[in-house]
Design goal:
alpha+beta; 190 residues; 5 helices; globular
Amino acid sequence: MRITMASGYAEPRDAIAQDWAAFLASVLPEATWLPLPNLGRESIRAYCESWGVNRLILTGGDDIGATPLRDETERELLAWADAMALPVLGVCRGMQLMAQRAGCPLVSVQNHVGTRHPVTGAIAKEVNSFHAYAPQACPEGFEVLARGPDGAIEAMRGAHLPWEAWMWHPEREVAPFDPIDKQRIRNLFL
């Protein structure tokens, strides 16, 4: 989750956009969801195991490096998901983190913040866009599912793990949610 500061005093808080609740209720009404706090490398695995976490969504918000505790927590979550072969959906920042973990640097992209544009490939549709960085190339162990008009990678999936990642934000769309996104998530998580 994104780390924010309480207004008026220094108290970091973990936060997630409220849009996720409506999106997840629409896509996976049979699932129970638990927001994971930013506990850091030492505690997050035990926390997930104590709650029986068996799937992950790495949500967007903030560039990598902006909040070191979140970076550390989510890197450890990916290492744990890899070891356990858990399904993972990376959204925007989540996709960027997956790419970096696979050794692929991020590059600056132009005209992707606050826009809509088409993507083509295995996924062809129009998407919302709120990111300033994208993977430089397809990371090792992944395959490209979609590219933007400028060639930037907009979606990818793991070749050997049940992982998928999108640079767009499905939760920010207006209900009813895109049936392509809904079906892809159901296929990944069920």
